[in-house]
Amino acid sequence: MGRHAGLLLVGAGFALIVLGLLAWSGALSWLGRLPGDIRVERPGFRLFVPITTMVLISLLLTAVLAVVRRIR
After folding, report:
1. Is 47 helix (H, G, I), strand (E, B) or coil?
2. pLDDT tens digits, residue range 22-69?
3. Which of 10, 12, 49, 69 could form an SS bridge with 38, CB 3.0 to 4.6 Å?
């Protein structure tokens, strides 16, 4: 169990590094600007509800966790 958990943590860390580098380089600038994301900007007021982005991330994480579960 210990070795598997360590490998999973290393993999998750590597994935976070890659995701961070992509965000830093601007490759993910479209994230949060998808159709369905609600953005209201008025003087003195700003509202941002990334509904489509949250659904997309949820589907992606569900798929990743399903693959990890099958491997285990």
Report:
1. strand
2. 999 999 888 888 999 999 999 999 999 999 999 999 999 999 889 888
3. 49
Q: Which residue has 């949820």 as its token pair?
A: 58
Q: Mapping DSSP to helix (H, G, I), strand (E, B) and coil, where does residue 40 land?
A: strand
Whole-angstrom distance, CA of residue 33 vs CA of residue 31: 6
pTM for the model: 0.69
Element (H, E) at 48: strand 45-49
> What ranges do the domains of the chain cover?
1-28, 31-72
How far apart (Å, rounded) are the C-alpha atoms in residues 45 and 59? 31
